[in-house]
Amino acid sequence: MVLRSMRRLPQGLCLLTLVVLPLVTVSCTAHSQAPALDKTADQAVGLRVGYFPNLTHGQAVVGIADGTFARTLGPQVRLEPRLFNAGPSLIQALLAGEIDIGYVGPVPALTGYLRTHGRALRIIAGAASGGAVLVVRPQAGIVSVADLGARKVAIPQLGNTQDLSLRHFLRRHGLEATERGGTVTVIPMANPDILTFFRRQEIDAAWVPEPWGARLCKEAGARVLVDERELWPGGRFSTAVVVARSEFVVQNPVLVSKWLEAHLALTKKLHDRPADAAKLLNREIGRLTGKLLPQEIIDEALTRLEFTYDPLKESVVAFGEWLYEEGYLRGVKPDFGGIFALEVLESLVRPQAR
Questions:
Q1: Got the DSSP string for 251-288?
Q2: Quick check: is 223 in a domain?
Q3: Which stretch of DSSP H or E encloses residue 126?
């Protein structure tokens, strides 16, 4: 296919298990009871979509706000958006049959897929590449990776994409988290709390998604030590993907196609008109969160982020391999290839490439 563009690890393992494993039984029940959307009925039916009020979910933020998805889906479909604050909670809702489509980071998507033995969900498109940074407090005296030893480093959530990237990065440079016998204290906390603790000088560094990297720099005097794009071939890696319940993909191919049609149009809009995109995203995220950010923060954050429908499969598989290497998965190394269901995306992209 040619496309365009945990304070203690055992606690983290327990958390991942508690978040996902108990839902396997629930999700199987929910899936068996969830009816296919009837596209011929007189009454509009609901399509439930989950996303975050984040830059990396820009297509969902803009497309739901400006009516692109609603217009493309047509009057027979009633769009039911639902906001989430973290990937594991979105995946939990999807496994429970509470949402049909979601925008989420690749690591929560992989975890949900693997914990349900490949039955629960599929990645149907990409959404964003890049947009994650390791920032440090200048007062902490961290000028290189080696200086992270004996420091406190925050991540948004145990088991999320930034957590995994940090742990893999530390190991590559001969460092380990304290629960592995190392000296780096990895502390999970919500992004707003990371900003607060940075200002109090109670943490030394943080691996965060945008716009929190830009916010920490502008509002707390942080400095970017590592732009994660520098660690990936070609500077591209998956930050957000579009997932759907496996049953939904099979039973509703027309709706999946219409959703992706709108997703492609929104990706092009955000990619081709960055200045307009920055203003639109800031306005809509401000409306959803109740806080409008200074435009300069959004502008800076978007310099490190690319909107794309390409799921960047190699990077998603790499994240899956890191999950295994870091001990989040037990037993035989799993096959990650089955998580992708890109046939509909490919059918829409091919005509555009001619």
A1: H-HHHHHHHHHHHHHHHHHHHH-HHHHHHHHHHHHHHH
A2: yes
A3: strand 121-130
Whether the predicted model's global pTM rises above the 0.90 cut: no
Q: Is residue 1 part of a domain?
A: no
Angle, helices 274-289/58-65, rounded to nearest 10 degrees: 80
Q: Which residues lie closer than 8 Å to 204 by C-beta, 6 or more apart? A: 136, 137, 140, 142, 148, 151, 152, 153
**Residue-range definition of the domain harbouring residue 163:** 132-234
Q: For residues 311 and 97, give the distance between their C-alpha atoms in angstroms, rounded to a whole number.
A: 23
d(CA 120, CA 111): 11
DSSP 54: S
Q: What is the DSSP code (8-state) at residue 234?
A: G
Inter-residue contact 164 to 107 (CB < 8 Å) = yes
Determine the Cα–Cα distance for residues 291 and 311; give it in Å rounded to an integer: 30
Same domain, 239 and 347: yes
Give dist(CA 144, CA 338) in Å, integer: 39
Task: Say which amino acid occupies 24.
Answer: V
The whole-number mean pLDDT for each consecutive block of 10 residues of the chain, a chain of 354 residues, reads 34 33 33 44 81 94 96 96 90 96 96 92 98 95 95 92 95 94 95 94 96 95 97 96 97 96 97 90 92 93 96 96 86 86 95 56
